Structures
1.
Amino acid sequence: MAQSFSSPIFNRFETALRQKNKKVTIPYWDSLLDNYMDNDPTPSESVVFTEEFLGNGKGIVRTGPFKFWKDVNNCTLQRSLNFNNSETLMTHNTIDTIKNDLSVHNMKQIIYNKDNNTHTLEGQHNIVHDWVGGMMSILDYSPRDPVFFLHHAYIDYIWTKFIQKQTAMNIEEEYEIVGDDIKRHHPNRTMDCFYWMTNADGLKARLASNVRYEDSPACPDCGHSKYLKCHKSLNRCVPGDKFTRAGIDGIHSALFTPMLFSLVYFTTSIMSI
Ligand SMILES: [Cu+2]
């Protein structure tokens, strides 16, 4: 289950980064916003995957800060955005439900479900792994792409909203065994690499309470991002000129339109132990 290790890992990871730079925080990539690029431009043209941010999204990463990045096995970072041509990312309704719908308030409603995993937080998280492709789509290799941390920070952000909802409803801390691997997911099992914590510890609300995330950009100001604008009828922040690009000259639309929306997602997480 994605979330049982995310909080402890991000806590430690951010603390380690701060030993180098006290001001650093882990940003999140709100990939949900990219759904509005489903026509032209498309999500795989997101500014996230340009030289300006994380580098190109198809093939060997040759641009941006991680160009020709080598992993521990000397393999070069590569991606395969939208490999199955679906341009499908997470589902707005599902994410909104997990965050806000009071009828969805127990862990078993949002964690792995072998009969219908698409609308769980786990399933939504999987979609983005597969959509980015390359190393991100392979379980054991996915953390070798820096996108992993931005994606998981967003999942952690949604998780934190869910925990806050539970807390407001006075719901006790709970733990559900995920899938059929009861031994591996037993609440009292010690976590891999975190021998001082059990699986259940990783899900405790107190961990979420140590995390603060800036809210995802919302209308009307959309975080004052130059990449987003508020689409009034949707009441969502969307790529800046998706709805006006017909009036933009060819060069501008071809080169810069994809950059107009995504960067917004990079908001801040602040964690403390
Ligand atoms: Cu993941």
2.
Amino acid sequence: MKAGRNHGKNKPSAVSQAEEKEKKSETHRAGQTPIGLAVPGKKQPILLHACCAPCATHVIELLSRSYSVTALFYNPNIQPDDEYQRRLQAMRQLCQHTGTRLLVESSPVSVWDRWVQGLEDEPEQGRRCLRCFTGRLEYCVSTADRLGFPLVATTLTVSPRKPAGAINAIGVSVAANARTCYLESDFKKQDGFKRSCELSKSYNLFRQNYCGCLYSLRDRDAL
Ligand code: SF4
């Protein structure tokens, strides 16, 4: 893994913890599109976990209105390697188009294998996927903490095939003891998914035809 995790280190004081908690209660609104915190003349930084370029299109467009967005591509679930490279290249292309900062982090596939061990035969949207979301969000929250981002969000809720409620519950849980706040979302709402398709087409981005892991590829091929 390229970066370590430092949960629990450099804890904020009691006062700042209370402020953080208050901030969290303002921003943790399940199922709503987030709205920027009002800081006149200044956009708050946010670290956006990007699962892929097509999903990130709409979210970057939306969040950039209120936040200073840095995208983080961290997806050790994507296999095989040529598919990973294709999706990463599409992400670079999108960030170049939109002028978005991009961080790329990676872990060996064996790390992802450990997350989902014993759940290989679960169907998509089952328990294997919950572990896959958890591993990626833990890493993103840890990175946001390490780099001093006050907020973190994920593009995972753009997909109509992914449960926003479960993803948000994981995000809130993994950020509970961190200094960063997880921003709840359901980015597919208000035609968000449709907008992501339009933008992907206009940017001529590569769009994958399976979720990412070899099991989802196997299931696609079995159809
Ligand atoms: S189907 Fe998608 S979300 Fe589920 S485990 Fe595979 S890559 Fe992760």
3.
Amino acid sequence: MSTIKRFAVFSGSNFYPCGGWNDYQSSYATLDEAVEALNAGDWRHIVDLTTGQIFKIPVHDAESAKAVQCHMCRCEAPRIEGGVHIDSDRLGLSADTPCDRVFAMRDGAGWLAYVDGAPLLLHEQRGEVLRFSSVTAAYRTACEAAPKRWHP
Ligand SMILES: [Zn+2]
């Protein structure tokens, strides 16, 4: 038995959920470690056990990044600050959903911030990509940059 650390990872398959604590995989001291740990399954939640906050930070490798689609985008659900979709009428009937086309991509030892199929650039003309040392920094920057691409 090991002690549970601050960030607990739950994951599983949509077809065979175990339910609750049975979907618990492991725990990590930092959010970055928890995100970087790869888990099998269709869905994944990271819970900060000190606050109860749930993190859904989408991560892809170079291969899967090319094929990422977002069913909320296909339904033309509005997107707002922070890279999330909202109810079209804001009635709060469904929770804000992170857009699947805003994510962090693993790139060797570093991370890229992706919005709508392309990484954020450090320099437009030279086409240099912005690199991050942590997955959470890459995702945070992608979320901040997304609305500027959507509503320039
Ligand atoms: Zn979307």
4.
Amino acid sequence: MFVCDIGSIEVVRPYKRVVFIQAALRDTVRTSTLEPDMTASAEKFTRQTLLDVQPLTPNLFSLRVTRDSGFRFRAGQFARLGVTKADGSVVWRAYSMVSAPHDEYLDFFSIVVPGGEFTSELSRLGEGDSLLIDRQAFGFLTLDRFIGGRDLWLLATGTGIAPFMSILQDFEAWERFDSIKLVYSVREAKELAYVKEIAELEQRDYLAEHAGKLQFIPIVTREQHPGALNARITTLIENGELEKAAGLALSPEHSRVMLCGNPEMIDETRKVLKARDLQLSLSKRPGQVAVENYW
Ligand SMILES: Cc1cc2nc3c(=O)[nH]c(=O)nc-3n(C[C@H](O)[C@H](O)[C@H](O)COP(=O)(O)OP(=O)(O)OC[C@H]3O[C@@H](n4cnc5c(N)ncnc54)[C@H](O)[C@@H]3O)c2cc1C
């Protein structure tokens, strides 16, 4: 029921979909009616174990979790994660997978929102603790949203880098596109996550034949950082600096653009792209732009 609703709303009214997902994911489910593990196995979710937690900054961390053998997803999709609060209730939130669909574990990248209901709990967890994961993956920030295209642009703010790491660790993007531009905007340089992993992607055996396709374009907005651009994504598109840095023009014919993260950035960037004739991709009318708002 949940999936169908998302699908139909997403196709017809993409903005409404975000509101719907967030409302659905915010539902707090009482666990008091659940028996321990045996009942959980018959539920919509599985109980997984935290294998590793790595802080990046006091407010950002990555986590690795065991993966149920039945959990399938496409690169770019998100999982529904649940944490149990002290009063026994469970809080659910959407989290994009960072890891690739072929990995044996699941990686996630999280912010800690001060006072945030979910992240306050999540950030308290450590190795060996359990996390609930819905059996089903969700989301439409996937490459099958696009027809054709030559250049893939992945534009992220903050934790919005997560689905793009999954897409980049999968084979499809590399095979389908001649060039991939990963544009990743953060406020301070210390918030740039996965920089080493990004640099090493093209050295992976299964991607070696596509080496040279990826260009990483970091943006740091609140300080000067060597090698990074220093303005908002929208400004950089409007003044031509992003295309200059990429050595490539944005065009409806060749560009396919994914946006993920801050809803304000997504909204404004969509308008700027629309002015360049790059349209949101819908089922009935495939276009050049796909988006995932994080709140
Ligand atoms: C499809 C989807 C995928 C998502 N994937 C991720 C992910 O991979 N990593 C992740 O950290 N979050 C992700 N989120 C956001 C996540 O679901 C929660 O909102 C977040 O964990 C905060 O939960 P909370 O209960 O602590 O605070 P909430 O009550 O949910 O949020 C409080 C406020 O914090 C801010 N906020 C929420 N999330 C973020 C964020 N990611 N970055 C900056 N500010 C934020 C917003 O202003 C929001 O109004 C995703 C959301 C959606 C809809």
